[in-house]
Amino acid sequence: MNAISQLLEAALFSADHPLTVDELRRLLPEGSDEELQARLEELREHYEVGGHGVELIEVGDGYQVVSRRHLAEAIAEARIVARPRKLSRAALETLAVIAYRQPVSRAQIEDIRGVSVEGVLRSLQERGVVEVVGRADGLGRPLLYGTTPALLELLGVRTLEELPRLEELSVALRPPTEAGELGEP
Amino acid sequence: MNAISQLLEAALFSADHPLTVDELRRLLPEGSDEELQARLEELREHYEVGGHGVELIEVGDGYQVVSRRHLAEAIAEARIVARPRKLSRAALETLAVIAYRQPVSRAQIEDIRGVSVEGVLRSLQERGVVEVVGRADGLGRPLLYGTTPALLELLGVRTLEELPRLEELSVALRPPTEAGELGEP
Amino acid sequence: MTATSITTTNETPFVVRLEAFSGPLDLLLHLIREQEIDIADIPIARIADQFLEAIQVLELNEAADYLEMAAQLLRIKIQMLLPQPFDDEAWEDPRAELVRRLLEYEQIREVADWLSQQASEHSGRFTRGWVPEPPQLPPRPIAVSVEELLVAVEQMVEAMPEPMLHRVVPRPLDVEGATQRILGLLETREELSLLDAIGEARGIVDVLSALLALLELARLGRIRIAQRKAFGSLRIKRERDLATA
To answer: CB contact, 8 Å: B177 with chain A?
Structure first.
């Protein structure tokens, strides 16, 4: 491993979040972006070919070293790391509405889900995957909610565009009115 | 790397503390202690020989994979270890009082918030969003606090006047209480 | 909540466990899909009855959302019974809005399944568990937005207490307390700044107590106070650490 890959690896092992290209660039002020990309690729391959227990992945707009999925069970069983708590059905549905409709008010979410979402919205905010992104015009100026980069990290995706496109959903029947359709995430 | 070293690497990577021999043993219930030691040695050597940016070290009575010390400085300088942190509820409320009431003394903030704000105030100062802007007349000449230009930058506004006026907030509909009323920014 | 047995027209009744549903739309969709009903032509009278049957076991506090849906179903049922105008073109199906909501909700349900699957797969990739404390750096940057500030204002005003008188209570120096606190901090941390040593309370009494405690501890050889460069900040370390470092 050359000195730059070494530094990149050390940094990825010292950070509690995916490192963005901006952050990584600060590590090698003299290196070009091409060099950075090449070194990251080298590190990724090294983990791959060497049969390491960790891998380099892209999450959100950053790079992150994570342990390999097939080892999770043994590690969790040895009580070394606990798997994160699963989101409830209500939380997942609320997240889905926000992801496809953001920015969206609480009343709009409740309209689509048919239930009150006050509690679940708060817990999604506490978990950091949803945040207030603004206020609507109009009566009462209700708060508008959107998803955060932490959601990308929760899902292990690079952008919300990796969420299923509505054409791909098995609910093939189209709502009778245009207004009912969900926007793209 | 063989399957056991792989598992050890993943566990050492994801654990939030050095792993003791007892904990590592739980990972390979069928392996002997000799095997465990041999695999740890293999992992240590792998990092060493492969010129990795990380190393396997013994800390207290445990094992840990950490970035190599000589790289730590470059990583610290690149300021990538910690990500921006959200303010706590207490900090936000204190900041809000200061933004709308400045210049304001600690006692005044505490009157409004109903709790001691000493620690919160200090951390807001450390983060550079609040500063001492003067001293009040009167008993003890208490310090007066105000917001800094750095806060405006964080909020993405040019002047405090760009903050929404309190009448625009739904709270403005409430009857003001004597001491509790917030002033305009 | 317990299970309800739902009566269907011609087949065997089936059992519905309400806690398995995330809301009235979920329950409704379940009734429709379970009986393989064409969503474009919902037999509203039958579905409304089954819906009411299913929610009989609901407790009052969780019933509101379900009752609202029940009322809507009954309203549609009545509208369906009204004579249709001769001009068929102009007739608007009273079920249209419900169908639209159901389909929209069904999409959401499918996305929720996908999210659940994806999150579950990714949860097997553990991220780095231990990261070093950033050494001697300015405090972390913070992220704050106008919206957050506004929400804070509102929450605060809601919880605003009655005005209180500010009291000043003179306190004696507490060197012993400060000593214990500083030693306690050094149990868990390698190094302290002067501010750390003084602690949260910053009254003149607290500062004096902390300073006297530091001087006494240094004199006893239990800590070392160092300054890396002129006018730099003071660093406080345990003497034992220095010996082994």
So the answer is: no
